[in-house]
Design a protein that fits this description.
This protein is α/β, with parallel strands linked by helices and about 280 residues long. It has one domain: Alpha/Beta hydrolase fold, catalytic domain (Rossmann fold). About 30% of the residues lie in helices and about 20% in strands. The chain has an 8-stranded mixed sheet, with helices on both faces.
């Protein structure tokens, strides 16, 4: 399905849900197949911006700021456990009138979309995981030691050093991403940094996904400094899963090379969008 420029749309809004206000972005035609993009830890829906223009020709692209991230509210006393984040995402899709769609998650966002598929299998047509570690045994990063008082005062270069493992060696992290990192809530960051390992330690993603019977595409930047890229092979335990390695790219191929990342993603979604009657 291809749409003309005047048929596409770009919109952002805030949804008032039981868990608080959730900010969402929608690009592309409302009647196109839905493609949900979920960001990772220390980021926001803006982290997908470089890829959006490549996807709206065939999709209604929906991006959500997870609770406490981006422009979404930080719920008082709210839970940041992965299943609870997924429940909020499902409620947001319901409010937007989405009956089913393909869901994609980057990094820890892969855990959120997996939990969404577990909770709402009828809502999820297929899944795309981008540099989402299969379990904590594959993790090779280090815990972030962040001084809450110093964090807002860090220069751009100091921030680049702090988040360098999120990208391929030598990649120049754009200022737009540094803005997202600088704006993040450190309490939310700490909560999510505990919640994701808890979810993965309880049960790894391949083990969760292989019982769901959903088409799966795994995209992995081969130079990932946070998760062993060889661990992507664990997803082959999921029946019919496709694993695409991207040489020269690191933990964030959606930012490092949007065009290369979009190629396997669009080929996959073209094969798994719901067919019109």
């Amino acid at each position: 399905m291809t749409v003309s420029e005047d048929e596409s749309r770009a919109d952002e809004s805030t949804l008032l849900l039981d868990d608080g206000e959730i900010h969402v972005y929608q690009d592309g035609p409302l009647d196109a197949p839905a493609l949900l993009l979920v960001h990772g830890t220390a980021a926001s829906a803006r982290s997908w911006e470089p890829m959006v223009p490549l996807l709206t020709g065939s999709h209604r692209v929906i991006r959500i700021d997870l609770p406490g991230c981006g422009r979404s509210a930080k719920p008082a006393g709210g839970s940041y456990a992965v299943p609870d984040q997924a429940r909020v995402v499902g409620a947001a899709l319901d409010r937007l009138g989405v009956e089913c769609g393909i869901v994609a998650g980057h990094s820890s966002g892969g855990s959120v979309v997996t939990a969404l598929a577990e909770q709402r299998p009828g809502l999820v047509t297929a899944l795309v995981l981008i540099n989402s570690g299969p379990d904590m045994a594959a993790y090779q990063g280090e815990g972030a030691a962040i001084d809450p008082e110093q964090w807002p005062k860090l220069t751009d270069e100091q921030l680049r050093q702090a988040v360098a493992s999120g990208f391929a060696p030598g990649y120049r992290i754009p200022g737009s991403f540094l803005d997202q990192v600088r704006d993040m809530d450190l309490h939310v960051f700490a909560a999510v940094s505990q919640a994701v390992p808890a979810y993965l330690n309880e049960r790894g993603l391949p083990d969760r996904l292989k019982t769901l019977g959903k088409p799966l595409l795994v995209i992995f930047g081969e130079e990932d400094l946070r998760w062993r890229s060889s661990s992507a092979a664990a997803y082959r335990a999921v029946p019919g899963a496709t694993v695409e390695m991207l040489p020269g790219l690191g933990h964030s191929p959606n930012l490092e090379d949007p065009a290369r990342t979009a190629v396997p993603l669009l080929a996959f979604t073209a094969s798994h969008v719901p067919q019109a009657d």
